[in-house]
Amino acid sequence: MEKVEGSYYLLNDELVKNADGESYPEFEGRTVYEVIRVEDGIAIFLEDHLDRFFRSAAYLDLPLPATAESIEDRVYRLIADNQVGNQNLKFILGITSKSESVLWIFFTQSIYPPKSYYEEGIATSLFRIERLDPNIKLVRSDYQKAVLQERADKGVYELLLVDGNEEITEGSRTNVFFVKGKELYTPPAKAVLLGIVRKKVFEICGKRQIPINEMAIPVEWVKDAEGAFVSGTGNNVLPISKIGAVAIPTMNNPIVQTIMADYAEMVSVYKKAKKH
Q1: Residue 210 domain boundaries
Q2: Which of the listed residues 55, 56, 64, 65 has the most CB atoms within 10 Å of its CB?
Q3: HSE-up of 158 (CA within 13 Å, CB side)?
Q4: What pTM did the predictor assign?
């Protein structure tokens, strides 16, 4: 069961009072989803999220009962009606038992990393599992359960997924980058979910003329990394201080620190532009 928070949610264009799951939609078959971070009442990089959401829907041939413009209007109506400042918003699109295409938009439980994680880095662990259709945000309860259990068992904030070739592909809810010398390395686009924050990291590196190499990342690389970080909607750019038993000197790496600062500035500029 989804954790729906706030006084109201949307079913297509209908505003519904949140009454403990009484009228939550029941989907049949595969569904796609998107999570957007709301900060200071602004849906961060909403246009990028909508573009990916529409591509995911097209991939599964799911009809979207709305245009991008109308969804944006609904998002800000829902933000206003729930009086939300900082929380994650979730879209789920699927076909109900009545054979109707439904877009469900709601606020969900949002737990963000504490400030200390950005100052000290996070602990991660390797997890051997592969995601189906890595470029599409499919709802998969089996994957989610396995990941949650492994994170709890290992006592880490994030898992770095390892495929059958002993290569790191992505984080369980993030994209991952490594630093060697003055260059970044990240798994190729075809092997991962193309995160919105990942896209912004590429934009930052383009402006800073920091080379990014998209290539397979062997597990054995971990011990030689000079820095590493994950990127994601709920985490922004989050430094890694440890992968399993291997300490990573990320907090002393100027490239990672520059990207973190530039991303924070990028979000600030976006919010200011949307408020005017």
Answers
A1: 115-272
A2: 56
A3: 29
A4: 0.90
